[in-house]
């Protein structure tokens, strides 16, 4: 039986930390779905459509990586997709509490769903979408922290605003 894993998140924007986890997941599982939560934030930097487009472009050469969207409860999406592995990245101890709560809540809601945690490469362990947005919006460089396509889209945004 093949294993379908789901890597859920906001991905606003996709970072090299996310890319690292997705690549690890694609090696570990038969198929991994990058599941982008619709309308997670009131004012996202990128629309859901843009986030889907970016992730599809970044993983176009990974045949077992799929990009999809979901809304509502993650466990309902898992059931619809007949998937029972949730992948989440753990960067530091500070992530643990929130991740443990989510994993146990998801288990409470759907007992057959397992959450598998993976550590990104150490060089990405300090990156978060929130910090990327903050650094970028204050004029800092994000080169090497996000895929080139994300950097390009961020720069386009900056030049439109100037
Ligand atoms: O990128 P994030 O913010 O770390 O991802 C959080 C996400 C999307 C995984 C989480 O908010 C989620 O699963 N939301 C869907 C609603 C849901 O199922 N909530 C209960 C989770 S225990």
Can you give keywords for this protein?
5 strands; alpha/beta; binds 4'-phosphopantetheine; globular; 162 residues; 6 helices; five-stranded parallel beta sheet
Tell me what the structure shows.
Strands 3-2-1-4-5 form a five-stranded parallel sheet, sandwiched between helices. The protein has helices at residues 16-28, 48-58, 74-81, 93-109, 129-137, 148-161, and strands at residues 4-9, 31-37, 65-70, 85-89, 114-118. The model has no long low-confidence stretch (mean pLDDT 95). It has six helices and five strands; from the N terminus they run βαβαβαβαβαα. The radius of gyration is 16 Å and the shape is globular. The longest helix has 17 residues, at 93-109. It has 162 residues and is of the alpha/beta class. Helix content is 44%, strand content 18%. Residues 8-10, 37, 73-74, 102, 105-106 line the site of 4'-phosphopantetheine.
Quick overview:
By secondary structure, this protein is an alpha/beta fold.
Low-pLDDT residue spans: none
Overall pLDDT level: 95
Number of helices: 6
Shape: globular
Helix content: 40-55%
Oligomeric state of the chains in view: single chain
Distance between the termini: 53 Å
The hetero compounds bound to this protein are: 4'-phosphopantetheine
How much of the residues is beta strand, in percent?
15-25%
Rounded Rg: 16 Å
- Main sheet specs: 5 strands, parallel
Record the strand order, biggest sheet: 3-2-1-4-5
What is the H/E order? EHEHEHEHEHH
Structural class determined from secondary elements: alpha/beta
